[in-house]
From TrEMBL:
It comes from Macrostomum lignano. Coiled coil: none annotated. It is an enzyme of class 6 (ligase). The keyword Transit peptide does not apply. This is tryptophan--tRNA ligase. Its main location: mitochondrion. Its EC number is 6.1.1.2. GO terms for cellular component: mitochondrial matrix. InterPro entries: aa-tRNA-synth_I_CS, aa-tRNA-synth_Ic, Rossmann-like_a/b/a_fold, Trp-tRNA-ligase, Trp-tRNA_synthetase. Belongs to the class-I aminoacyl-tRNA synthetase family. The keyword Transmembrane does not apply. Pfam families: tRNA-synt_1b. CDD domains: TrpRS_core. Gene3D superfamilies: HUPs, Tyrosyl-Transfer RNA Synthetase.
Length: 372
């Protein structure tokens, strides 16, 4: 593990995941830096919110010794990654606006020292990607599954993990909140950070630690489809009733919850194996109320039947989402709303550029390239 991690308190909602790597001798203690990114897919669904966004907010709001991050904590809308799917330009612009507005509405920027920006507006991402490609064996990328699983046939899909590594190392991030499916990409960033440090006999990059959800956050990270609890909640599902969007109206939310798949067994009990549909609803209620799933029915009981559970869940969900939905609508209302989003993204870009410029200047010096 990086030396920086040993000097940090353990975070209650996230757990570190140790990954095998070599470290640079005499490694300095890097300033703790939090970084994560999100694809511009528009308004997040409930699974995105509970599994990632709400816990980014929680991490940035921790006080005193429980919030050890050195400012700025950085979050980016990774619009360059989105180009692998060849979206229509107007669609990409709209989705980027909606994604940024959603994060702001969720309170991500409410804490001081937190910045949000668009990946494509900081040139250092692609420059560092190219520099890292010179030390990355092709076999490393061939072993990653991302380029085999995607339907798109372009080189960007193959080099996608290199750009992810550049996203992290450009800001010398020490901690990256991710899900299980992104662990292999954080591992690549650790390996390439160690390889660069060894190749140039330096301690340029920390070895980033992935932060995996635990406790209530782990429950939230496994939100399932409302129509098929064997699948994750996803925007790719053609059935709109399978997911709840943060911008859904009260009526839409209740309609989707009321029709959510459960089972024919009488009563309400938590049994993910035998009653997955019902367990999914209980998991949602647990995540919203920060209560272990096994205890949530006792805390909110007696819950007499499935309809009562769905009503209880709807009440908790609407209480959480109404202020977010209101702020989101304000941020999309022209002209002031989009102008405010642009202002905050510009502020974030300026902070990110300052960090990125220092990294690129040092990397260019170490690799023998002339200064800009």
């Amino acid at each position: 593990r990086s030396a920086a991690w040993h000097r940090l308190p353990r975070l209650s909602q996230f757990r570190p995941r140790s990954l095998a790597s070599s470290s640079c001798p005499d490694s300095p203690v890097f300033r703790p830096r939090l970084l994560s990114g999100i694809q511009p897919t528009g308004v997040p669904h409930l699974g995105n919110y509970l599994g990632a966004v709400s816990h980014w907010v929680r991490l940035t709001r921790q006080d005193g010794a429980d919030r050890p991050w050195s400012p700025p904590s950085l979050f980016c809308v990774v619009d360059l990654h989105a180009l692998t799917a060849c979206p229509e330009p107007a669609k990409l612009r709209q989705l980027t606006l909606e994604t940024a507005a959603s994060l702001i509405a969720c309170g991500l920027l409410d804490s001081p020292g937190v910045r949000l920006f668009c990946q494509s507006q900081v040139a250092g991402h692609t420059e560092l990607q190219w520099l890292l490609s010179a030390i990355c064996p092709i076999s490393k990328l061939q072993h990653l599954p991302n380029w085999r699983e995607k339907p798109y046939n372009n080189a960007a899909i193959f080099t996608y993990p290199l750009l992810q590594t550049a996203d992290i190392l450009l800001y010398r991030a020490t901690h990256v909140p991710v899900g299980e499916d992104q662990l292999m990409h954080v591992e690549l960033s650790r390996e390439l950070a160690a390889r660069f440090n060894t190749r140039y006999n330096c301690s340029m990059f920390p070895l980033p630690e992935p932060l995996l959800p635990c406790g209530a956050a782990a429950v939230a990270a496994r939100v399932r489809s409302l129509r098929d609890p064997t699948k994750k909640m996803s925007k790719s599902d053609p059935t709109a009733a399978s997911r709840i969007g943060l911008a859904d109206s009260d009526d839409e939310i209740w309609t989707k919850l009321r029709s959510a798949v459960t089972d024919s067994t009488p009563g309400v009990s938590y049994d993910p194996e035998q009653r997955p549909g019902l367990a999914n609803l209980i998991d949602l209620l647990a995540a919203l109320t920060d209560c272990p799933p096994a205890e949530v029915l006792v805390r909110h009981g007696p819950v007499e039947n499935k309809l009562a559970l769905k009503r209880l869940l709807a009440d908790s969900l609407l209480e959480r989402l109404r202020p977010i939905r209101r702020r989101f609508a304000e941020l999309l209302a022209p002209p002031d709303g989009p102008a405010e989003v642009a202002r905050l993204l510009r502020q974030g870009r300026e902070a990110a550029e300052a960090e990125a410029a220092a990294t690129i200047a040092e990397v260019r010096r170490l690799t023998g390239l002339p200064p800009l």
